[in-house]
Amino acid sequence: MFVTHLECSKCRLTYESERIMHLCTCGAPLLVCYDLDQVKNAVSKEVLGTREPTLWRYREWLPIRQDENIVSLGEPMTPVIPLRKLGPELGMPHLFMKDEGMLPTGTFKARGAAVGVSRARELGVQVLALPTNGNAGAAWAAYCQAAEVRAVVVMPADSPAINQKECTITGASLYLVNGGIGDAGKIVTRAVEEFGWYNASTLREPYRIEGKKTMGLELLEQFSWQPPDVIIYPTGGGVGIIGIYKALEELRSMEWIGEKLPRLVAVQSTGCAPIVKAWREQQKESQFWENAQTIAFGLTVPHALGDFLVLEAIHKTNGCAVAVSDQEILEAQRLLAQREGPFICPEGAATLSAAMRLAEEGWITSRERVLLLNTGAGLKYPETVQADPPVLEPDDRLPDE
């Protein structure tokens, strides 16, 4: 392991990495720092290419000290799929989608859980607690079971039923709250203070980002270390886009990629768009979004602890932030399935909606390589599709359509 220390993302105060840490004394998230010169000496692009195609091929960039502490459910490299039909139709002939729905538990949340739980176990954690809109709770519950760490999960009562069932079947202690993700977070915070549990809430421990960072490492390798021009990411808590930006910065520091970085685009729903509002108003932090609601449940984060990090990543890469409606999301979800085949989650579909708008506005040109991040399998969101097929009798004949 090449970790040197933890550093505050805001005031830059440093902390020793081999003890349990959460937020800085100033209240900001902590980031894991590495000796990147040692990483560069320890691994090459050629050696990397010979390794097993899993998340753990990026071992040198991850904070696990001993291999025996790794908790894995077989996290594969997820495919980058060229959208050969839909892209040209939309004026983006170089349009790609990275499909994170192939990961354990069906979403990109497995990346953060794999590294976060592995590190928690290495630090001696026995009980961890987290609030969730659904998918993160399902992922952390599964990895905690594998790690023999008790998971306490609190999620809104109207969260997707499949996520509730995933937590239950893996043995997590699941509690529902009549409220939103913020209310769940308050309950977890009180429990952590009372019982001394490990707080695995978004960005309140340093290691979930490191798992999400592997999305950036992986997609850069898949693009032969030639970054795409634009990366479009669905943004709720923002850990994914923060992790991708961290990967880009680390690779640039190691001279594995050039100075030019992809323009990062944060996509939110018009029903919950605090990052978009802050970006449009040229603010460094966002304000709480009242009455947040969207069909893309993972985007229902009224105020993200790491909002300033998301806005910084957008600003430093000359990116932007876009809000799309639920109707646009559902239309994009259906369009992609009917033209290309994959049934993606509504959060992922939001990135296609944003790409379509940005191409129409000329912000994306036909020459550019554009990557959409689909963060989960559409099968986890059956309620987004209304199916009413005709019912046949045994002797009926199929029509010639």
Structural account:
With 401 residues, the chain is of the alpha/beta class. It has 13 helices and 13 strands. The strands form 3 sheets. Strands 4-5-13-10-11-12 form a 6-stranded mixed β-sheet, with helices on both faces. Strands 8-7-6-9 form a 4-stranded parallel β-sheet, with helices on both faces. A 3-stranded antiparallel β-sheet has the order 2-1-3. α5 links the parallel β6 and β7.
List key phrases describing it:
single chain; 401 residues; alpha/beta; Rossmann fold; six-stranded mixed beta sheet; four-stranded parallel beta sheet; 13 strands; 36% helix
Map the helices and strands.
Elements: E1 3-8, E2 14-15, E3 30-34, H1 36-42, H2 45-48, E4 80-82, H3 86-89, E5 95-99, H4 109-122, E6 127-131, H5 135-147, E7 150-156, H6 161-169, E8 173-177, H7 181-195, E9 198-199, H8 208-222, E10 230-234, H9 239-253, E11 263-269, H10 274-280, H11 307-316, E12 320-324, H12 326-340, H13 346-360, E13 370-374
Helix pairs in contact: 4-5, 4-8, 5-6, 8-9, 12-13
Shape: globular
Beta-strand fraction estimate:
15-25%
Order of helices and strands: EEEHHEHEHEHEHEHEHEHEHHEHHE
Instruction: Work out the helicity level.
Output: 25-40%
Strand order of the largest sheet: 4-5-13-10-11-12
Radius of gyration: 21 Å
Head-to-tail CA distance between termini: 60 Å
Class by alpha and beta content: alpha/beta
Overall residue-averaged pLDDT value: 96
CATH class of the domain at 80-106 and 207-383: Alpha Beta
* Low-confidence runs of at least 5 consecutive residues: none
**Strand segment count:** 13
CATH topology-level fold name of the domain at 80-106 and 207-383: Rossmann fold
User: How many helical elements?
Assistant: 13
Q: Major sheet: size, sense and barrel closure?
A: 6 strands, mixed
Instruction: Give the CATH architecture of the domain at 80-106 and 207-383.
Output: 3-Layer(aba) Sandwich
